[in-house]
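job 3f2a | input accepted
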Amino acid sequence: MDNASQTFYAGEFRHFIDEKNRVTIPARWRRDRAEEFIILPEANHHFLLVMPPEEFSRMTAAAESSPQVSPRDRRVFFRQLHARAQHGSSDRQGRLVLPEDLCKKLGLKGEVALVGGRGRFEIWNLARWQQANAEETPTYQHVANVLGL
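job 3f2a | predicted structure (149 res):
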């Protein structure tokens, strides 16, 4: 397993998107070189998913082998997934250019929230993140109590 496949994104950060639709990836999430990413709007268009190509490959492999998905639905899913996904890359300063159409569609401008999610991270409109976070906190607390955390 190479280092890229072991990337782990944890935490929540607030960063600004500049006039060129660039957002700086948090320092603890990046390496000292340019990196490639797959950028994808979440299925319900609540946030942007950003992941290394290796994570995208793992995700598509899991979808490929899922017995709950019919062959027809799988073909449609992959067509839509790959049509919606876009390539992105960060520069050596960790700035990632976000596609303008997705920024507009998801209301990403000014200050945004970057939220870690294991092998990927999410970029949220700040107000939408604050609302989702408030709504999800009781579920988090319930599961944490069940697990004894």
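job 3f2a | Strands lie at 12-17, 22-24, 35-41, 48-51, 86-90, 95-97, 110-117, 120-125.
job 3f2a | closed
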